[in-house]
From TrEMBL:
<dbReference type="Pfam" id="PF05962">
    <property type="entry name" value="HutD"/>
</dbReference>
<dbReference type="InterPro" id="IPR010282">
    <property type="entry name" value="Uncharacterised_HutD/Ves"/>
</dbReference>
<dbReference type="InterPro" id="IPR011051">
    <property type="entry name" value="RmlC_Cupin_sf"/>
</dbReference>
<protein>
    <submittedName>
        <fullName>HutD family protein</fullName>
    </submittedName>
</protein>
<dbReference type="InterPro" id="IPR014710">
    <property type="entry name" value="RmlC-like_jellyroll"/>
</dbReference>
Amino acid sequence: MKIYRSSDYRRMKWKNGGGETAEIAVFPAHATMDDFAWRISMATVSSNGPFSIFADCDRTLSILSGEGMTLACADRAATYLTTDSAPYAFPADAATTATLADDRVTDLNVMTRRTVMSHSVTRMTVDGEIDIQAADGSVVLFCHDGRMAVTVDGTVASLAPQDCAVVDDMGRRPLVLSGKASFFVIRFNEIS
């Protein structure tokens, strides 16, 4: 298990220069915007406009704070996303435009290069203790609000808001989560 603290995230300009992003984790380590297999980041969107285009990638977006925004993606119907919405998956290489409901939102972005990886994102809560079934690929737990502990094979790590834990190749062993928090479970699987 590897822990990433919010204070250590790498801050950079968006690929299209329209805003700022905080890179939470990337695989392989030190990959660039052009050669990652997967990437997790947070972005602050403070004006209406287009999203960056990432060739051959799929993206899932979740609103973390703010009043929400409407996404218009290629030929899909426009979708209004808020902090209560399910994570929204769409192709990262399709022309996508955001229209804010208010002055800004912060969102969680998960991307995979579709020729090598796939991903899923689920929003969950813990109030007490729960088990999360791991899988053959990587599992990332991103703490949104509150605090929680993650136990893997007797090793315990505490997550504060916007921290995350990356667990690789757990097989079918469970991850034990405890505390009171809202969080995201992100699963990555290699394309065979």
